[in-house]
Design a protein that fits this description.
Largest sheet: 7 strands, mixed
Strand content: 5-15%
Number of domains: 2
Number of strands: 11
CATH superfamily of the largest domain: Type I PLP-dependent aspartate aminotransferase-like (Major domain)
CATH class of the largest domain: Alpha Beta
CATH architecture of the largest domain: 3-Layer(aba) Sandwich
CATH topology of the largest domain: Aspartate Aminotransferase, domain 2
């Protein structure tokens, strides 16, 4: 296969336009180019980079790795000739303005016309800011999230020295609302994290029910949409998930990762607050750094200092090409990934060798390999995973509580608390047309695994 190269021509044209903007500056003295040495270094780096999984290819269906759009790659590279720093207007005047515009478009996607927000280096930092703000507004109160929420919430709370507790999940991988209500009755809960698109199952917490509880208990609601946020644009969600996305306009803060479904290079996260007055919590003074503008700069509403302005340039360019609107080309790509997940789930449900853990809500599919016990099933899953990789089909593994897989049946021996299952993230639009090939390689891997196990058992009996 060939790597995409057309964007290199776009980059050359963009650099011509950028260069023209600095034409009035005195010429720099010509220095030694050092091209042979640079070529050798780049060639060596390219050789090292070959030791990677093909994240850009549809046969990579394991972790949450989606290739950046070519225009994002080109825009990021073009911006690096200036290397702006979006901490302050002094370091990134144009890119800071582009960040504000791009972030406003993301906020509008969630129905917010007014907001406070900015880009971050990723979802972890974005969630840290949201929980930091929650802790400042309700000091000493407990933050809760479901057991299927990302592990960083507990870790972040530890860094912030804020109390954290996990709420059990239901059979669908969502926060158990009854368990949440019991915890709320005990008091001292200041923030509830609702996850719309868990990293394990792609499950969507029941946000409308959580917001209804807020009316009674008065806690703050933070929506971790780092993975699933862009699905608010798609038209092929089930009603429960659709209801959760429609309710996002009522939460207090949202985190989304453009470097996941937003077609951006790493790292590009985003944190949004519904109330712009939240900015008062960030207030600080650094008169030795900022001098060229009295206008509010992004460093005054973020915890991070230096940040790559190139991320904002790439995001702005991508959203200019692919607007964040329902029914648009960008939304259509997400809908294709969801159709791929539904198609794979349907095929797995009809194959007696596999046990579907749950119906996908977004574009993540989780399934086990049928056997007599949790330990045997886990061994089979690991072997299928390894065999599939030899066929260039790259999946992922996930540990699932045994009670969460009813499809294994009543005779299934639960000799361990968790069972290892296979997991696939079908986040590339191309995955939809590659499902037959993915299934063919998966089934071949399963056949090889089961045949090998049978031969091993036969030899053992002899």
């Amino acid at each position: 296969m060939d790597l995409e190269r057309d964007s290199l021509q776009l980059l050359a044209g963009g650099l011509d336009v950028l260069e023209a903007g600095f034409a009035g500056l005195p010429a720099l003295p010509a220095g030694a180019s050092g091209l042979p040495a640079m070529e050798a270094a780049l060639t060596a780096a390219a050789e090292r980079m070959r030791d990677n999984f093909p994240y850009f290819h549809p046969l990579y269906a394991g972790q949450m790795l989606k290739p950046p759009h070519p225009v994002a790659r080109a825009a990021y590279a073009m911006a690096m000739w200036v290397n702006p720093n979006n901490h302050a207007l002094d370091g990134g005047r144009a890119s800071s303005a582009m960040e504000r515009e791009a972030v406003a478009e993301i906020a509008a996607m969630f129905g917010w016309q007014t907001h406070l927000g900015h880009l971050t280096s990723g979802g972890t930092m974005a969630n840290l800011e949201a929980l930091w703000v929650a802790g400042r507004l309700q000091p000493g109160m407990v933050t809760v999230a479901s057991k299927q929420a990302h592990y960083t919430h507990e870790r972040i709370s530890g860094v912030l020295q804020q109390p954290f507790e996990a709420i059990p999940s239901d059979a669908l991988g969502r926060m158990d609302v009854a368990a949440l209500e019991r915890r709320l009755d005990a008091g001292e809960v200041g923030c509830v994290v609702a996850t719309l698109g868990t990293t394990g199952f792609g499950a969507v917490d029941p946000l409308p029910a959580i917001l209804k509880l807020r009316e009674r208990y008065g806690f703050r609601v933070h929506a971790d949409c780092a993975y699933g946020g862009y699905f608010t644009l798609v038209g092929n969600l089930e009603s429960s998930a659709r209801g959760a996305y429609d309710a996002l306009t009522e939460v207090d803060s949202i985190v989304i990762d453009p470097h996941k479904h937003g077609l951006q290079p790493y790292g590009c996260g985003c944190v949004l607050f519904r109330d712009p007055a939240t900015g008062r919590i960030y207030k600080h003074d650094s008169p030795y750094t900022y001098f060229s503008s009295a206008e509010l700069h992004l460093g005054e509403i973020s915890l991070e200092c230096s940040r790559a302005g190139a991320s904002a340039v790439a995001l702005w360019s991508t959203q200019r090409l692919l607007p964040l609107v329902p029914g648009g080309e960008f939304a259509a790509g997400l809908e294709a990934g969801r159709r791929a997940a539904l198609a794979l789930a349907a095929e797995l449900s009809g194959d007696r060798r596999f046990a579907l853990v749950l119906q996908p809500e977004l574009d993540i599919v989780v399934w086990g390999v049928r056997s007599g016990s949790a330990s045997a099933s886990s061994e089979l899953a690991q072997r299928v995973f390894d065999s599939a990789a030899k066929r260039d089909l790259h999946l992922a593994l996930i540990r699932v509580p045994v009670e969460a897989v009813p499809a294994f049946g009543a005779e299934f021996v639960r000799d361990r608390a968790e069972v290892v299952c296979l997991r696939s993230v079908l986040m590339k639009p191309e995955h939809e047309t590659w499902i037959p090939e993915i299934l063919a390689r998966l089934r071949a891997a399963c056949d090889e695994t089961l045949s090998g196990i049978a031969k091993r058992d036969d030899l053992a009996q002899r």
